[in-house]
Design brief:
five-stranded parallel sheet; alpha/beta; Arc Repressor Mutant, subunit A; 232 residues; 8 helices; Rossmann fold; four-stranded antiparallel sheet
Amino acid sequence: MGADHPRILVVDDEMQIRRFLRISLTSQGYVVSEAETGGLGLLMAMSDKPDLVLLDLGLPDIDGQEVLRTIRDQSDIPVVVVSVRASENEKVACLDAGANDYITKPFGIQELLARVRAVLRQRRIVNEVDISRRLQAGELIIDLETRRVTLSSHPIKLTPKEYAVLTMLAEHPGRVITQTQLLKQIWGPVHVADTHYLRIVISKLRHKLGDSSDNPLIIQTEPGVGYRLSNV
């Protein structure tokens, strides 16, 4: 990924939306390409290999979820869904299918730009993790070799499940990880409905990290969907 000029592909059939996103993104230094159909979007995603795809779901030829699944089958290019579909089920389905984030239309451009920055930052961290063998979100550091966790240089003692949940969130800072993804990977497929296990671990993690249970700033809840780790 070019550090100075990340490339973003916008896949949306509405010309006004594409124009608005192109103007907003180019003003921040991004290089923007556009596709008005799912088929063209897939072709450009595979041939141009952009740093990030902004994907609408309501495309005229192929449903956006199918576009997402096809991209994810062939590539790890980050995908942020931008859609009028606002149901929790739709969000969960897209995130479980591999979307890095989900933004509902209409949206504030500052929120979208912040989400874009977070996903691109996450991409850099993932690319660097094999070299550094540590994860970092702000003052939170997880050393993957020693399994040592520190916050503002203070060691945090975690149980194996707490460590696993925190590590999975830290691997994707700023991205919503669904309850299903966390439960399936950490507890196993037979426990995907046991959301109370996850709620207990999240509660204990917040306590150990000094995070507020009423207004958490470190581990944030996306109601009905999952959790995201902020850059504390």
